[in-house]
Design a protein that fits this description.
The structure holds 3 protein chains of 3 kinds. Chain B is mostly helical. Chain B contains 16 helices and no strands. Chain B has helices at about 5-10, 15-40, 45-50, 60-70, 75-105, 110-125, 130-140, 145-150, 160-170, 175-180, 185-195, 200-215, 220-225, 230-245, 250-270, 270-280. Chains in contact: A-B, A-C. Chains A and B meet through helix 2, helix 4, helix 5, helix 6 and helix 7 of A and helix 1, helix 2, helix 5, helix 6 and helix 7 of B.
Chain lengths: ~325, ~280, ~400
């Protein structure tokens, strides 16, 4: 039977002669017409997404940079390139610097507290067998609650005279404070609210991390002699949570960095800019004062910080995959 | 807890006792804002402004407070807006993202990597940064201060495309080939096969989308100013500034009503919520 | 090196019994394998031995001492896990050193920074390093000490796990299916290495597996477990040739032993598979018995005669060195597999009627409840008359 064998044999000869062969095996179904049809089909499927991605992501981000580097204002018909003028104005502005400072302080309070408390609670929950989902639900609740509404509840809690916090402090003889109206306490107060909200989130991520530690490593540690809780923590649990911990830090930092609701609802940046944070500054400059160039410059700074954090997060995720 | 669990709890070792004590303490502290909010929502003004530690009021004022909350502010309207907007956004997102994810997962075509790069860039960009140009766009389109304004920036979700693509990739290619041989068009494959098979991913995404849009204050603040259009976070903020801190009772009642839907949904389907939101972070 | 004594261990998970009154004695320096299918309780027994789980009743003695209340650390046992359970964040050297560090350094000495300042620590650390290096070299992984487990192959990881167990010179080595995650070629190689290890170290090894080949080749004695019970404990060849229970006979041996159902006709005669055979066993007429015949105990006979069974060929498997011939014997549902030399290949075709002869001393008899009936077995046909004539 010469026919088919001969043809495929010829194919084999042709393709084995030199690298790229002009003749492809027919069964690969990559004939030119087919490929075009598939490309067309794919682009039709992706069409709406592409359109909206361009319109709602690409165009706006370019727009932000354009506005930041030009002198365009609302209603203006023309614009001209002004280089780094907007950025210079922003950096020179004491208001912006203090906003940045406040954001940094806020982060420095919120991130370590949230991460360590989240870790502690996760360790306690996983450390026993009973009532796990009960405790998990309670601690995760703040994350689900609409912050704008809960801010109002917090305002009542922090009220200087009738608030529960001050009532409790007075009852045990500690000094009370006008939490949201005193420039020294307002940022810590907002930070406390931030910790309250994000705690459950950190906890849930740590719970996932703890669950992914294989049980037989703990058995091996038992047999090897690391059987006290402190030994187990140091030998197995904490080292293996290392990658997760870094990840949680970044994720909590991103969320804390973008906090806005509490500032807008409770303090509007006050008293006197003491609680103003970056996103609130962005909002106010862009939409209340309509200082578009200024606002866009802040947006670029905000973007730069977020992108850096996100890329670090992506890098850590990559390392996490190779780690085990 | 079941009687067996209760009995087990009574035979506690010191370690377990410590664990439960600490967790109950932190749990109680976490719940304080909720409890206080509900407590104030059922107290009359006289009791609110009197310092006391009690949860339950001497005079139950809940009916009055909640009635006032629902009538003085268009709270039902706010909640209804919230439901409608979240549903609309979710529906559009799935409609737009699923086919794109399918193309990225199962088709080989020119420009696929560029498209995926576009999606990844979208994942990087926080929506607050884009708010100014989006506002301008909305203004140019004349849709500001309409429901469309609240919905349009979110019509496509890079996270949705990413999540669906991951899931679609795990579906064997042969399933798709078989469907094509059976005569299904590509669109039919997306809706009749891929999405139903990717239900866990769809649910996780739905939860992530609904929670983040129900709780969003930033964009609605910019996009609309008519009270009739406001979603719950914005509505309650407006209500608060109108009340100017005097009428705490109805204010707390309104806050409770705004927070309640998601809390109830969460308690009912805890596992899905936790998984869906954890996925969102891991993106 | 120590002897191990397991007395009446009972373990239940909730309402489900996992270990039913298991008793076993393991001699000092013996290699004992717990063999059984998944879910038979062998891993649970190993974990109870190690102290990772508490038994509900019964006692464990190691080296003559009762260890029941003791944590694993105090029992002087080492364990190699099925998944190796190496610490992924530590180097190979740190993995192997950990058991030594845990035992030799006090809690204070183990503190990260302060501990280093304490006097004895440097000396202990140096000694530990030396032993780790020595152990690693003896297992051929000396060059991998600075790597992390994620960078090693399966076989290398297995050796690190063994090293971590060895380095303490424990009284008892416990191994929980350590080879099941390796590919078959590597498994055969590692089997030989484990046997060598046992000969070199001379410790007491308790080995868990579901693979009969491992059990047969490695062990001094095999303990066959099923459904939480020990069925038989004996040297491998005895398990094979002289099983005490039908389930043991069926579990060991590949291909599976042939089981034929027969009925005692009268004293000394049994009806089986369309023939009537003479046997000498303590059984009354009418009693049902099972005959166990290993495939290799059968040979080809030219014609029906004494000690033969007759059937038609259903299928032939050519294995290269042997033939496995599947026969359908007379009587309801009585298949038979015979192992014959490959030379017979051309002579046998499906559908053909074949006579197979049985070596009487290889026949195993079992009562209906699975117990082995031991007694002289002699198969002989009283006459060549077919069954129906004899029944008249």
């Amino acid at each position: 039977m010469r026919g088919p064998r001969a043809i495929s044999g010829a194919h084999h000869e042709l393709s084995s002669r030199g690298g790229a062969s002009r003749f492809r095996c027919p069964t690969a179904s990559k004939a030119p017409g087919r490929g075009l049809r598939e490309t067309l089909a794919a682009w039709i499927l992706a069409g709406p997404s592409v359109f909206f991605l361009l319109m709602l992501y690409c165009l706006p981000v370019i727009g932000v940079f354009v506005i930041a580097f030009t002198d365009w204002r609302f209603g203006a018909a023309t614009l001209s390139f002004v280089g780094l003028d907007n950025f210079r104005e922003v950096i020179a502005d004491e208001g912006f610097r203090s906003s940045l400072r406040n954001t940094a302080i806020y982060l420095l309070i919120v991130v370590p507290s949230t991460v360590s408390l989240g870790l502690l609670i996760a360790l306690l929950i996983e450390g026993g067998k009973s009532c796990r989902s009960f405790y998990r639900a309670i601690h995760f609740l703040p994350f689900m609650a609409t912050m704008s509404a809960m801010a109002i509840a917090w305002e009542a809690l922090l009220h200087p005279t009738i608030g529960l916090v001050n009532q409790t402090l007075s009852a045990i003889g500690m000094p009370a404070a006008n939490w949201l109206r005193d420039e020294h306490t307002v940022l810590p107060a907002l930070a406390a609210i931030g910790i309250w909200q994000n705690l459950g989130f950190a906890m849930v991520l740590f719970l996932a991390g703890l669950k992914s530690i294989p049980k037989d490593i703990y058995d091996a540690a038992d047999v090897d002699g690391a059987d006290l809780w402190l030994d187990r923590l140091r030998t197995v649990t904490l080292p293996m949570l290392g990658p997760v911990s870094m990840f949680v830090v970044i994720v909590v930092a991103l969320r804390a960095f973008a906090s806005f609701d509490t500032v807008k609802v409770l303090t509007q940046g006050g008293p006197g800019h003491a609680s103003e944070m970056l996103l609130y500054t962005l909002y106010r400059e862009s939409f209340e004062y309509l200082r578009t160039g200024y606002g866009a410059a802040i947006a670029v700074v905000f973007l730069a910080i977020v992108v850096t954090l996100t890329l670090v997060q992506a890098h850590l995720m990559d390392r996490k995959v190779h780690y085990q | 807890m079941s009687t067996r669990a209760l009995r087990a709890c009574l035979l506690l070792s010191p370690a377990a006792l410590f664990r439960h004590t600490v967790l109950l303490a932190t749990g109680a502290l976490i719940l304080v804002p909720f409890v206080w909010m509900v407590s104030l929502s059922i107290k009359p003004p006289g009791e609110i402004f009197r310092t006391s530690f009690s949860f339950w009021p001497v005079q139950f004022y809940g009916v009055e407070n909640y009635t006032k909350a629902v009538t003085k502010a268009p709270l039902p309207r706010y909640l209804g807006n919230g439901v409608m907007i979240c549903a609309l956004i979710l529906a559009l997102q799935i409609l737009v993202c699923a086919p794109c994810a399918y193309a990225l997962a199962k088709h080989r075509f020119a420009g696929r990597d560029t498209l995926f790069g576009l999606v990844l860039i979208g994942l990087l960009l926080p929506h607050q940064v884009l708010s100014l140009p989006l506002f301008i766009l909305g203004y140019q389109l004349g849709i500001l201060n309409t429901y469309a304004a609240l919905v349009f920036p979110y019509v496509v979700s890079p996270f949705g495309i990413f999540l669906f693509r991951q899931f679609f990739k795990t579906i064997p290619d042969d399933v798709v080939h078989a469907a094509r041989l059976d005569g299904l068009s590509e669109i039919a494959i997306v809706w009749k096969m891929m999405v139903p098979m990717a239900l866990p991913a769809v649910i996780a995404f739905a939860i992530f989308s609904i929670v983040s849009h129900w709780n969003d204050l930033f964009w609605p603040l910019i996009a609309v100013h008519d009270q009739s259009l406001m979603p719950p976070p914005l509505g309650i903020m407006v209500f608060k500034s109108e009340e100017a801190g005097t009428d705490y009772g109805p204010l707390m009642a309104a806050a409770t009503l705004v927070v309640l839907p998601l809390i109830v949904a969460f308690l009912g389907a805890q596992r899905w919520f936790v998984e869906g939101l954890a996925e969102g972070a891991i993106k | 090196m120590a002897s191990v004594s397991i007395d009446g261990i009972v373990k239940n998970y909730g309402p489900t019994p996992v270990l039913r009154n298991v008793s076993l004695s393991i001699a000092d320096g013996e290699f004992l394998t717990l063999l059984g299918p998944s879910g038979c309780g062998k891993s649970t027994l190993l974990r109870v031995l190690a102290g990772l789980e508490m038994q509900d009743a019964g006692s464990i003695l190691i080296g003559g001492q009762v260890v029941d209340g003791l944590r694993p650390k105090r029992r002087d046992v080492a364990m190699v896990f099925q998944s190796y359970a190496l610490y992924p964040h530590m180097t190979v050297a740190a993995n192997i050193a950990l058991p030594l560090r845990m035992r030799r350094l006090t809690a204070i000495q183990r503190l990260p920074l302060l501990g280093r300042l304490l006097p004895g620590r440097a000396r202990i650390a140096a000694e530990t390093d030396m032993e780790v290096t020595r152990t690693a070299k003896s297992l051929d992984i000396g060059h991998l000490l600075t790597r992390k487990p994620g960078q090693l192959s399966g076989g290398q990881r297995q050796r690190v796990a063994v090293g971590r167990a060895m380095v303490r010179h424990p009284a008892v080595f416990l191994m929980d299916e350590p080879l099941s995650n390796l590919d078959s070629k590597l498994r055969v190689q590692m089997r030989a290495e484990i046997k060598e290890l046992h000969q070199r170290l001379g410790g007491t090894f308790v080995y868990v597996t579901h693979d009969q080949a491992e059990a047969m080749t490695l062990s001094d004695r095999v303990a066959v477990m099923l459904d939480g019970e020990l069925l038989q404990v004996a040297p491998p060849q005895d398990i094979y040739d002289d099983p005490s229970d039908r389930r043991v006979a069926e579990f060991i041996g590949s291909p599976k032993i042939n089981i034929l159902e027969g009925v005692m006709r009268e004293r000394g005669l049994i009806d089986v598979a369309g023939s009537t055979l003479k046997i000498d066993a303590a059984a009354l007429p009418g009693m049902h018995l099972s005959l166990g015949i290993r495939p290799e105990a059968l040979h080809l006979a030219d014609q029906a005669g004494q000690s033969t069974l007759t059937g038609s060929v259903r299928m032939i498997e050519h294995m290269g060195s042997d033939l496995f011939v599947h026969l359908d014997l007379a009587g309801p549902d009585q298949p038979l597999v015979a192992r014959l030399p490959a030379e017979y290949g051309p002579r046998i075709i499906p559908g053909q009627t074949l006579h197979v002869g049985i070596r009487p001393e290889r026949v195993l008899l079992f009562t209906p409840d699975g117990r082995r009936l031991r007694g002289q077995v002699e198969l002989s046909r009283p006459s060549v008359t077919p069954l129906r004539e004899a029944a008249r």
